[in-house]
Amino acid sequence: MVRSRRSTVVAALAVTPLAVAVLAGACTAGGSADGKSGRAHGDGGPGAAQRMPVTRLTPLTEADGYVPEGEGLEVSAEVPALERLDPELWAAVREAAAAAEAEGVEVVVTSGWRSERYQRFLLEAAVTTYGSEEEAARWVATAEESSHVTGDAVDVGYTDAADWFSRFGSEFGLCQTYANELWHYELAVEPGGECPPPATDAAEGS
C-alpha cells in the first residue's frame, strides 16, 4: 500500500473526532474487543472474515477499507478503500488531486470505501466517545445509511487539501456533504456546477 504520513494534523482530519485509543484497541493484535461488535452481520464482502465482528483476533484490515490512524492514501493507490469506490468518484478525486498538486497542495485520502463491519465499529466507538446514540449519529452514519459503505464518499486530507476542495471541488463535481465534516466529499453536481448547501451533520443528511 502506498501511504503518506503527517502526524501533526491527524486530529483535525480523522474519520471522526474519535479517540485514537478506542480505534487502535480493536484494530491491533494487542487490543480488546468491543462487546457490542458481536451483533454485526456480514458486509457482503468476500470471505468469512468480512462477516466477523471486530476483535483482537479479527481486527480491521486493508480488506475492510481500513486506513491506519495518522496515515493517508495516495489517490491512485490500488487498495480496496479506493478500488471499491464508485469509479466516477475515484476518477474525479484523482483529477481534482492532480489540479491541487499542480498548485502545491498535497492531497491524500484518509478514508474511502468501508466494509459494513468497519462502519459499525466506528459508530459503536462514537457512542462510547460521545455518550449517546443521538450525538454519535451527528458524526457517524449507520452501516445501512453510510455513503462510505456504498463507495460514494471520500475523506480528504490534509487541512490545506480540504480547504482547496471546499473552494474548487465543484469544478470536478465534488461537494462537501456535511457542514461539520470539512473533509467529507461526494459527487453531487455535474463538473462546474454549484454545490448545494451541506447538511448540518450526518444525522440531518441521513
UniProtKB/TrEMBL annotation:
Spans annotated as Disordered: 31-51
GO biological process: proteolysis
GO molecular function: peptidase activity
Residues of the signal peptide: 1-21
Domain D-alanyl-D-alanine carboxypeptidase-like core residues, every copy: 84-162
Keyword entries, A-Z: Signal
Entry annotated with the keyword Signal: yes
Ranges annotated as spanning the membrane: none
Name by which UniProt lists this protein: D-alanyl-D-alanine carboxypeptidase-like core domain-containing protein
